[in-house]
Amino acid sequence: SEFKVDKQNEGTGPTVPKFAFATVHYHGTLQNGKVFDSSKDKNKPFKFQVGVGEVIRGWDEGITQMQKGQKAILTCPPEYAYGAAGAGGIIPPNATLKFEVEVLDFEPSIRCRHILLKHKDCKRPFDALRKKEITRDKKEAQDVVAKLQENLQ
Predict the structure, then answer these.
(1) For each of the chain's 153 residues, which pLDDT tens digit applies?
(2) Which is catalytic among the residues 60, 63, 82, 134?
(3) 146, exposed or middle or buried, with CB in 10 Å at 0-12, 13-18, 19+?
(4) Which of 19, 36, 46, 48 is catalytic?
(5) Identified catalytic residue from 19, 21, 37, 105
(6) 99 is catalytic
(7) Catalytic residue at 37?
(8) Is residue 56 flagged as an active site residue?
(9) Cys-Cys link to 27, which of 9, 38, 55, 136 (CB 3.0-4.6 A)?
């Protein structure tokens, strides 16, 4: 089978960007319909960073096609899931997985590690940021902003 994102409803706002921190509910089943994992059953939403390999490829690629409040069924063939290895004795080798996923919320990551040093009279500080890498380090982000403000004075 092929990788599919079957949207069940309309969401609101922009689609989830790469590197965002997404909060989702999901219900995962094998092809035979057997449930192998579900955040809904645990009543505990799952939070992860999109596009950095924290989750299977099908999620990294599928979630970026979804909006807040949107539900979709992600069909993930083995190359978008756990491949020939399977996972933890629960997912058999070469399994195609189906996930009912709902995007509850997302927040963009702080993306300001590299400073593009522009002329000192730059009026808009964010013109001077080169968005190359991501950082979760709040202190580092604050240092970058402080250096940037120094350069603007």
Answers:
(1) 799 999 999 999 999 998 899 999 999 999 999 999 999 999 999 999 999 899 999 999 999 999 999 999 999 999 999 999 999 889 999 999 999 999 999 987 765 333 333 444 444 445 444 443 445 556 666 666 666 666 555
(2) 82
(3) exposed
(4) 36
(5) 37
(6) yes
(7) yes
(8) yes
(9) 38
